[in-house]
Predict the 3D structure of the following.
Amino acid sequence: MSLFLKGLAIGFAIAATVGPISLLCIRRTLADGRLAGLVAGLGAATADAIYGAIAAFGLTLVVEFLVEQQQWLALGGGLFLCWLGLEAWRAEPAGLEDAPAVRLGGLAGGFGTTLLLTLANPATILSFAAVFAGLGLTAASAAEGTTYGAAFQMVAGVFIGSAAWWLLLSGGVGFLRHRLGPAALRWLNRLSGVVLLGFGLLAVLRAVA
């Protein structure tokens, strides 16, 4: 299997993990349509690619810094998730004819939210570091035949694999969006708000423990 395909599989597998980012993408798709959900997912894919690049190119000083700051990153990310949960609970569903990407702060807001939340989880970079090291694909192993070009192929595969998952998720949820009425969307808003708040509180408790 080529390095690009290996990166593709890794990116897809890591992105497909159920968590708050998936929930945010689903909620954004239900509220604003497929494009808004996809762009939100691409924010997470970009963060995956950034962390994948840090691991693949052997930037150990960056890894060490992020690990040292993981308590503060987790605390900030948890509080942000709590705020998003409260906003989701209070949000009223828009009609399907409403212009997407304007009511919830725009495509840039959705992209930036998932980008920052994914970057606020240093466990992601540790996952990439472990996988890449196991495959012998870090820049530190260049003397054994691994090149920066190989690392770049892996990172490109990670981004496209992650993006492919978000494309599938937003497309599937978008298909269901037109089959849900305002009452169902309202309850989905509230359910997503409770779950996001739960994720946020759990992150905060872990950070201060």
Remarks:
- Confidence is low (pLDDT under 50) at residues 96-102, 139-145.
- Residues 20 and 196 are 6 Å apart (CA to CA).
